[in-house]
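User: Can you predict the 3D structure for this chain?
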Amino acid sequence: MENNQKGFVGMGIIIAIIAVLAIGGVAYYVGTKNNPALQNVPENNSQSQIDNNASTSTIDKTANWKTYTNTKYGFEVKYPENYSIIYTSGDSHITFRSNGSCQSPVSEGGEWPIDCQAYDILIQQNAIGGPEMSKIFINGIQAEKFTDSSGMWSNGTQILVQFQKGQNWYIQTFTFNQSKSQTAEGIMNKILSTFKFTEPTTQVNTSNWQTFKSAKYGFEIQYPSDLNYYIPNNGESSVIFNNTTQATGGSRSYKIIIEEMSGTTMINGVEKQTIDLTPKDMILNALNQRRCNTENSEINWVSINTGGVEGIEATTQSGNACLQTYLPWAAYKKDNKIYYIESSKASKEEFNQILSTFKFTEPTTKVNTTNWKTYTDAKYNFAFSYPLDFALSSRLKQCNGGESLDSRACLEYTGNQTSNGFTAASIDVRVNKSMTIDECQKTWPTTDVGVPTTQQKTINGIIFYHDLIGSGAAGMFDTIDQYRTYRNGTCYTIALDVASNRGQSEKGLSNEFSDMMLTKLQSVLSTFKFIK
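Assistant: Here is the predicted structure, written as C-alpha cells:
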C-alpha cells in the first residue's frame, strides 16, 4: 500500500510509546509540505559526503563502539558505547538512545533533554515523503536528507536520512537538543560512516529435515522433522505438511498443489486460456478467488529458478490481513502444470529454506500394462485396462458400497495386499444422459485447507473435472476421487474409492498404504479412453 507520510518517524512519539510500554507499531511525526515551520535546512558541503574514509586522522574514533548486526535485512552499523538499544520490532524497527537524561523523556513533548541523543532505524518499502530533501552520499550510497526543528519537542532537532536498496528503504533519524547540535551531528556522521550492507542470512537448521518425493509429478522437497505430510487422497496433486496427522490444524503448515493448466480461466472478467497464463497470473487469480485485494502494490514479486524452470515468489510486508494469511506463496509452470508452494502461519525464513530445497525430478508415471485385461463398453464407447489383482463385479448398483443406478462398470480390488482398517478399493464408471454440460462440469469452491474441491485434469488426452469427496458412517470411511467428463450428450463419472473401517484402526489407514492403493486405481484410470 502506498505510504505518503509527509513527515518523519517521530522520536518524541516513539520514546513516549516506550515510556508507557505500549505495544509495537511505528508512530510518525506528521507535518505538511505547506507548513512554513518545516524548514529544509541547507546542508554544507562538508556533510554532503559521509564515508568511513572522510577523516584524515589515523585514529579510529569508533574502535570502541558497539556493533549492531541485522541478519534479516543484511546490514550492520556501529553506535557509541554509551548508547543502548531500547526498542525493536521484528528487525525492521530499531531504536538506540544515549544514556542519562534519555532514560525518562517527557511523553507529551516539552523540552528535549539536553544530553539525550536518539537514533532510529526503520526498514519499509516506502520512503518518507515531505518537503524537498537534499541529496547526500553515505559510503557511496545516494541518500536523501532533511532537518526539522519544529516538532513537538521544544529545543529538539530531528535529522532524517533515507536511502533505498532493492525493494526496501532504510530510514534513519537522529533527534537531539539544539544546543548540542555540533556534538550530536558529529556523532551522527560517525554512525552513518559505519553503516554497511552485508549478506542477509537465515539461521534455519536443516540437518535433521526429511525429504518428500513424488514420483508421479516429478519433484522432491525437504521439510522440518517436526512436521508430518498428509495427502488428501488425490494422488499427490496436493500434499500438506503440518504438525498434525490431518489436513487442517497445527501451528504452521505448508502445501504443494499441482493443477493441470487446461481449459479457460476468468481473469479480471475476461476469459483466457489457462495454458497462456504466467505463474504470477495464477497466484493473483487464486488470491482474488480467496477475496484478497491485489489491486494495490502490496505484493513483492521475486523471480525464482529451479533447474531451469522459471517461477515466481510472492511476499508481502503490508498490513493486509488476507495477504498475510496466504503469503509467502511460490509457483512454477512446467509441462502444462502449475506447481504451487504455499505456507500458513510460517516464518518467511523457514519458507524460503523449504523453497530452496524444492527441485524437479524425472517423473515415473508410465504403467506397465503387460498381461492386463481390457473392459469395453460398446454402448457408451469407452474402454479401460486393469491388472490381474482386480476383477469386474456384477454388483453394479452397489459399486463402492452405495446405490449407483447408472453404473456401467464396477472394478474391485481382489488382491492380497491389506492393512489394518482397510476394507475395499474399487472403481465405478457411471453415465448420465440427462445431465447438462454445465452440471457435469460444475466447479465447486475451494475448501478450508486451500485445496480446490474441483480441479481440471487431463488424463490420456481427456479433460476431467476432479472432485475430492469423503464420507463416513458407523465407523466406515470412504475417500473418493471423482472424475467427470462430458462427451456426446453424456456425462461420464469415474469414482476411485478406498474404503476403511476406523473402528479397526485408531488412526485410520496409514498414508503409505492409502497412497499405494490409490496409485493402483489411478493406473487403471490412466488407461481410460473413448473408442469412437
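The first helix runs from residue 11 to 19. The domain at 373-530 is CATH 3.40.1000.10 (Protein Transport Mog1p; Chain A).
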